[in-house]
Design goal:
single chain, five-stranded mixed beta sheet, 5 strands
């Protein structure tokens, strides 16, 4: 499998949103429609302007089949540790369990180490039990309980 992992380009944006829309969990209501495009474009631009955020895609035969975002967080705890948050991990539904996600996470770990991060954190919807097994196979441990509050 000739998989290319690279930083996302604006031309990838519709594919990235479609990958998120495929997810049956999470309830984000993502859809690449004209009503929403400006919001996605603004978010893409903000990520691109931030030195602490990177957006990647996995491409197979010229088609975007996966994506993930890295956010670097300097912290006071841990003597000023740099933590990398892995988020927005998606693989096209018809291509799951073929090693694409594992290669994306390995790539993310390499980027984190290159930037000096000492840990990699992520959160996953509690109902995504297959994803939890996947992350545990890759060496992640369940270490924290997450909380979320909508700020309407």
């Amino acid at each position: 499998m000739k998989l290319l992992i690279r930083e996302a380009k604006r031309a990838d944006l519709s594919s990235i949103v479609r990958l998120h829309a495929e997810g049956d969990l999470g309830g984000h209501g993502d859809a690449w429609i004209s009503l929403n495009n400006a919001e996605y474009e603004a978010a893409f631009d903000a990520i691109g302007r931030s030195p602490d955020n990177l957006l990647f895609v996995a491409e197979l035969d010229g088609e975007v089949v996966g994506c993930f975002q890295l956010t670097f967080i300097p912290t006071i705890a841990g003597r000023g540790a740099l933590v990398m948050r892995l988020g927005g991990v998606q693989v096209a539904s018809g291509l799951r369990s073929q090693g694409i996600g594992g290669r994306m996470v390995t790539y993310a770990e390499t980027v984190a180490k290159e930037r000096g991060a000492n840990s990699l954190v992520l959160s996953s919807n509690k109902r995504r039990v297959d994803a939890h097994r996947f992350y545990e196979r890759l060496g992640f441990s369940r270490s924290h309980e997450g909380f979320r509050k909508a700020l309407d």
